[in-house]
Design brief:
Largest sheet: 8 strands, mixed
Number of helices: 19
Mean pLDDT: 80
Structural class: alpha+beta
Strand content: 5-15%
Low-confidence stretches: 36-55
Oligomer: single chain
Length: 546
């Protein structure tokens, strides 16, 4: 008898797929986990780009922190923290989770047959009368979700009612290929380099795999020029909160010595090294750059010990400021059992702790097992719900620490339904996912702004409504992405990444900066404006149009 559903962490075996061979295929089908990573892995990249230092460092060491020497700044860039979720394998986003409609926006509804393709029964299409009240549309997050969305249910499970009023979002209908490692979905390099994103106080980018992009999908956007991928941003793998504390583990130095004495030892090491470097000819072409990197590595070793070491931190010499499991706001979101037994919750806790406290500048959480066209609906519903829980935890934690957040969700490809219902308890009568379908794909982002929800744009030369700025592109009535629309993202994953970067920079009132980049979103200001969802947010305040 054919198995009809899978448990939440069970690998997916598809008769129409070859056995998984690549790491990406193993993650997509859930054979291995999509772990979390921190970008900036090697010693010099970690040590040469942190922002925070304390006056306890000796004067000569402090002087080396200057931008002209080691560029170790006191403050970060002040940009909106950025977290993205890479749902590996081709998850459903459009229709059954986030609504996607025609040219008029999300509530320019598709046909009943189109919604069936997106897994929705005819009596539960958006706009139909819900016997329990409403019309199957939920706008509590600004962005319209299907009221029975498993992702939305997961978000609400972790994000309480209060913060929801300060959230808004946008959806981008955009094709991407199924079951391939060649989708350049990940925007973190583009965000970091073209959004003028300064480093976090401990690391730069944080991601979800030990890969060049920091996630499952490739890095994308701006044609990936040779200078685009910066080796200094290479991810450091993080799979649990304890991995973060290990980043600044001082071994037995703090413990045998007090923290202050350990800092003095590291300062002395820097001075000895500096004298040796001054007297040495390395005989390499970039002698000065090499010596600068080594000097700054030792300076930053002293800084990290001063900032993050602790005489009484559970006996490991590391400050509890790095440990997500000791953060009361995180403990309020995840139970002991969840942090102990659920890998997705562990890595999400570590990533959001780092990004939203300024310890890292941006991050990706890769979640595996989203290639869930298993001939049932229950498998996908469980995984969508947990993804939503992780998203909701990030939004709730942003509210708890009082900082804004842009959260971007994407998947490589998508799925489609044959319309047959899965009448199991977990399937809930929704359409079974029966195959890959790149034409039903979409991505979305949510923005949290403390105290005031982001405001949608409207007007412009095209006279677009707020609904048309909330959906950047559209679908045909039969539920396939309209690739001939004036939205370049619809048929190009690189342009999709650029659309996300444009919206990130637009939040910072820097559309002009984006216009000067080598992008493919159109040359006129009006072409860019139609691809932007929100009014700018600067220092928490929304800037009105004009």
């Amino acid at each position: 008898m054919t198995k009809k559903s899978f448990t939440i962490d069970e690998p997916l075996r598809h008769p129409d797929h070859s056995r998984p061979r690549t790491r990406r295929e193993f993650i997509s089908q859930g054979f291995i986990t999509g772990s979390a990573t921190l970008a900036g892995a090697n010693l010099l990249s970690i040590m040469s780009n942190t922002n925070t230092a304390f006056a306890d460092l000796a004067g000569d060491i402090q002087a080396l922190r200057a931008p002209s020497i080691c560029d170790i700044q006191n403050t970060g860039a002040g940009k909106i923290p950025f977290i993205c979720f890479d749902l590996s394998g081709g998850a459903n986003i459009s229709g059954s989770n986030v609504l996607v409609g025609g040219t008029g926006g999300q509530e320019d509804f598709l046909s009943t047959a189109g919604y069936s393709k997106l897994g929705l029964p005819g009596d539960r299409v958006p706009g139909a009368i819900d016997p329990n009240g409403g019309d199957f549309v939920n706008r509590e997050l600004g962005l319209a979700f299907h009221s029975q969305s498993a992702m939305l249910r997961g978000i609400f499970d972790k994000c309480p009612i209060g913060p929801r009023a300060s959230i808004n979002g946008a959806v981008i209908p955009a094709r991407s290929d199924n079951d391939t490692a060649n989708n350049p979905h990940n925007p973190m390099y583009a965000i970091a380099q073209n959004g003028d994103y300064s480093y976090g106080s401990l690391l730069n980018l944080i991601g979800s795999r030990n890969s060049i992009s920091g996630g499952n999908s490739m890095a994308g956007g701006f044609t990936l020029e040779p200078t685009f991928i910066d080796p200094a941003m290479r991810p450091t793998k993080i799979d649990r909160p304890s991995d973060v504390t290990d980043l600044v583990n001082t071994g037995k130095l703090v413990g045998l010595l007090s923290k202050d004495d350990a800092v003095r030892v590291m300062e002395s090491i820097q001075r000895i090294s500096d004298m040796k470097l001054t007297a040495t000819d390395t005989k390499v072409a970039h002698d000065a750059e090499l010596k600068r990197g080594i000097r700054c590595a030792y300076v930053q070793s002293a800084h990290l010990t001063d900032r993050y070491a602790d005489d009484d931190a559970s006996g490991n010499g590391v400050s509890p400021v790095l440990d997500a499991t000791q953060d009361p706001a995180i403990r309020a979101l995840f139970s002991d059992e969840e942090l102990l037994n659920d890998r997705e919750f562990r890595k999400t806790a570590a990533i959001m702790k780092m990004v939203l406290n300024g310890l890292a500048s941006a991050g990706t959480v890769t979640m595996g097992g989203y290639d869930y066209h298993t001939g049932d609906r229950a498998t996908g519903e469980q995984r969508d719900f947990r993804a939503g829980q992780c998203m909701g935890a990030c939004l709730a934690y942003a509210d708890a620490v009082g900082v804004p957040l842009m959260m971007y969700v994407f998947s490589d490809g998508s799925v489609a339904s044959n319309g047959l219902p899965d009448n199991s308890v977990l399937g809930d009568g929704k359409g079974q996912w029966t195959g890959d379908n790149s034409s039903t794909a979409a991505s979305f982002f949510l923005v949290y702004n403390p105290g005031q929800a982001p405001q949608l744009r409207s007007g412009g030369i095209y006279g677009l409504s707020t609904d048309q700025h909330q959906q950047l592109g559209h679908m045909r009535r039969e539920a396939s992405v309209e690739t001939s629309s004036p939205y370049p993202a619809a048929n190009s994953v690189d342009r999709l990444v650029e659309t996300v970067v444009l919206n990130y920079m637009a939040l910072h009132d820097d559309v002009g900066g984006f216009a000067g980049l080598n992008h493919g979103l159109g040359s006129s200001p009006d072409a860019l404006d139609r691809q932007i969802a929100f009014q700018p947010i600067v220092n928490g305040q929304i800037i009105p149009p004009g």
